[in-house]
Amino acid sequence: MTLSVARRLLREPQVVRSVLWPIALGPIVLVLTAVAWVWVEGDWPIAVDPGTPTEVLASLHHEGWVTIEVKHARDAVAEGAYRLGTDGHTVFTGADRGRSLELERVLRERVGAPWMAGKPVPPTYTTAPGSRLVGAMGFQFVLYGVVFGAGMVARDRDDGTLEAELTLGVARWIHGTSRWLAATAVLTIHFALACIVIHALMGVSDIGAQIRNGGAACGTAVAIGLLVIGRGGLKSGFSGPLAAGITCATVLASIGLTKLPGVSWVPIGSLLCEGSGWGALATSAPITVLAIVLFTRRSAQA
Amino acid sequence: MRLKRVIAIAQRDLRTEFAGRRFGLLGIIALLMAPAIAIRVPEDTTINVRGQVPERVLAIPEVKKANTGLGFAERNGTLRVYGFFMPPSVREALDAGDPAIEVEVVRAPYRRPKRSLYFSLIAASTLTGSVSASIGGERTRHTLQALLSAAVSRLEIVLGKWLAWTAFGTTTAFAAAFGAIAWGTQEPGPWLLALPFVPALTVAFGLWLVRRTQDVIAGTSVSLRVLPAILGGAAIVSLLTSSRSDVLAALVPLGGTMLAAGDFWDGSVPLTLLACLSSAGTTFGLLWATAADLEESTTPRAKPPWIQSVQDGAITSMTWWTLILGPVMWGWAGNAAATEALPVAGGMRAIAAMLAVFVTIAWSRRGAPHFSTPSWRSLPTALAVMAASFAPVLSFENPWANMSALRLAQAGSPGLWMLPLIVIQEIWFRAYLQRGGWALGAVLWTIAVYPTQPLAGLVSGLALGACARRGVTDAILARILAAIGLYGLSLTIP
User: How many angstroms separate the CA atoms of B272 and B266, rounded?
Assistant: First the structure.
């Protein structure tokens, strides 16, 4: 029954697009932003006049600049073929900022100028931004989880699928369990994919812990959806339970923002703090059991 | 074509949309427009400075000592200035009439559209919902059939709907424009000519996008996803093109008009007219295409295989390049440590996972790939793939571009330790992308995986494609044999 629920979920184009869109769009926008910055202020070769002194070229190469000899450096920059150029005494630039100041500094150092731009401190690399991004994307999957949990039941009740399944000779707790398993598995697999992609692009501090936190968050979100739907359907009584479920998920997420001790044990909240994920998984288990029990008693009826 | 019917359909559309919501919607639009009309952003000329600021810099009227801004420090008898920008007045003060090095800004300053761009953007944005409900709503209410059987032509229907929403968008945009002129926040100019063309082309595009949607929900989901991307993308393309040629930038449909409406070209009448003409032509082309394709009810249309392959190829290329070249961008932008810390292997693992998802989706929707029994064909194909891997990689002046090319080449020839990537690559490219044609499959393979090693891409793509025609097993085997062969060569040849 779990497989059949999962297949029904994945057959809906809106569901597939929803879970894949953040994984595709986030990284693409990230990289496009970097490309835009590279376009404006990236490490591009500079144009140099044929008569540029060799000592100047040596200084530039020593600092890592790539120089290309052109007929007239000034014209090359004016035409837009190069962003920066020099003849050893003058800097030709499109704008007096950033890398233009760095080029000017190399020339000023050679002539012992009284002032110059300070050498920029090389930026360091940490996995903190990647981990934060993964946490934020995890919250998007949490919202999907609430919608899937509540929406699956509401849709199945409205179109008669729930009634048909209840006539099968299976224990009633299986209906809630299979829905929880299917939705959680779909969301957790896609969240893990998001983690792998962000880890490749930016680096994530502990990808295993992130996936565990994500799994706990998705499971809890689906459980919340199952808890709030009650006997509602898509056509009657859906928006109220959905709002309640999303509010609950948001409250749990905001607990994570407080960074209080023990918050790594709060599922959904643990997405936004550093935790191994095992605590969140442990805490999400009783929430899931409660959701399935209440679903069986209240909702697993036609 | 009968003008009376066009106007009647326009009136009907407006009446249906505004029933009961007239003042609410207009109120929201007025709220959105008010800041764009009235807010004057004061030009802040203050230059914040900190640290050991010399007296001659402090003497500049705009300079103010703060905790942020341009930093000054004495190091070994030399004054160091820390900051991204160098204001001309500070440079002049520091040089004190005797610059050791001259700096010549040889390009025109960066141009920006003015606030009138917001009027056209907001007007276009408010139309998204109405346009998406326009044709889909007719199908939901089953009134499209009634219109068509009442001998109203398709073109009249489309023109009527276009007229309704273009008139609404134009009125909104002009109301904001005249408000800004009256408030004194923008001068009148030729940009007023371009203003109506933005909503006009946006509506035409929106109608074309939703021409085959079954209902309002489908129409809304299509237009909400695509229209903002079209608006933003067109503006960016036009902006980037303007750095090379203003004429070409003006010719970009929608983008050129948006820049003209934003007075980007400082009142240039020829460029504004060019932009308007380009957008007018595109508008009528889209309306014509929409009318030609409008049907009472939509029947699912199977995409020709080559179109599906090209779409899949585009998505695959974006995914591949993003994951392999993304880390290089950090170094190119100034953080070499980040590039060093993010090896290409991570990107290859992520690609394997993404391709697995693509294959799963394709498998469930288009059927399983065909796995044949292995045959002798995999051996010569493996040799061809091995030979292709020695093809030269394109080289560039820029070391970061070279690093990008090498990373792509490395990702294109994964070793045996990346067996899952090899298998999933072959299933995706040979079993699904190649459904559009053997040669097309090879081209898409080259573009996605070997853009900087085109010879390698074409040779391996054609060889693998040929042997995969009877089933994908041979192609997978050929790749594995090639990986083993290349590994063996790497051990024997220093």
Answer: 10
pLDDT tens digits, one per residue of B223-269: 777 888 888 889 989 988 888 789 999 999 999 999 999 999 988 99
Packing angle between helix A2-11 and helix A13-41, nearest 10 degrees? 60
Cα gap B464→B380, rounded to integer Å: 10
ipTM: 0.85
SS3 (DSSP) at B45: coil
pLDDT one-digit tens code per residue, B52-103: 999 999 999 999 999 888 999 998 889 999 999 999 999 999 999 889 999 9
Contacts of B81 (CB under 8 A, 6+ apart): A115, A116, A117, A118, B70, B71, B72, B90, B94
Q: Which value, to the nearest 10 degrees, does the dihedral of the CA atoms of residues B23, B29, B35, B37 take?
A: -100
Question: Read out DSSP for B345-408?
Answer: HHHHHHHHHHHHHHHHHHHHHH-PPP-PPP-TTHHHHHHHHHHHTTSPPP--SSHHHHHHHHHH
CB-based contact B94 A115, cutoff 8 Å = yes
Residues of B in contact with A23 (CB under 8 A): 354
Q: With an 8 Å Cβ cutoff, are A93 and B103 in contact?
A: yes
Paired tokens of A110: 């050679």
CA B380 to chain A, closest CA, distance in angstroms equals 35
pLDDT digits (tens, 9 = 90+) for B122-136: 888 777 777 777 777
Q: What is the dihedral of CA B343, B348, B351, B357, to 10 degrees?
A: -120
Token couple for B291: 């009318």
Candidates A93, A117, A199; nearest CB to B81: A117
Mean per-residue pLDDT over chain A, rounded? 88
What is the nearest CA distance from A294 to chain B, expressed in angstroms?
33
Cβ under 8 Å to A: B residues 349-378: 349-350, 353-354, 357, 361, 364
Q: Which amino acid is at B29?
A: I
Give the span between the Cα atoms of A184 and A274, in whole angstroms: 22
DSSP line for B163-209 = HHHHHHHHHHHHHHHHHHHHHTSS---THHHHTTHHHHHHHHHHHHH
Rg (CA), chain B: 30
Surface of B (104-133) touching A: CB under 8 A: 104-107, 109-110
Q: Report whether B115 contacts B186 (CB < 8 A).
A: yes
What distance in Å separates the CA atoms of residue A103 and residue A84, rounded to the nearest whole number?
8
Does B85 touch chain A if contact means CB atoms closer than 8 Å? yes
CA A39, CA A46: separation in Å to the nearest integer?
A: 14
Residue contact A199–B350, C-beta within 8 A: yes
Contact of A184 with A218, CB cutoff 8 Å: yes
Gap between the Cα atoms of B154 and B288, Å rounded = 9
Please give the Cα distance from B30 to B115 (Å, whole number): 16
> Do the bridges between strand B78-82 and strand B70-75 make them parallel or antiparallel, or are there none, so unpaired?
antiparallel
Burial class of A233 by CB neighbour count within 10 A (0 to 12, 13 to 18, 19+): middle
> A-B interface: how many C-beta pairs under 8 angstroms?
180
Out of B244, B334, B398, the one facing A66 most closely (by C-beta) is B398
Beta strands in A57-114 (DSSP E): 67-69, 84-86, 90-93
pTM of the model: 0.81
B385-394 average pLDDT score: 92
Indicate yes or no: CB of B342 within 8 angstroms of CB of A202.
yes
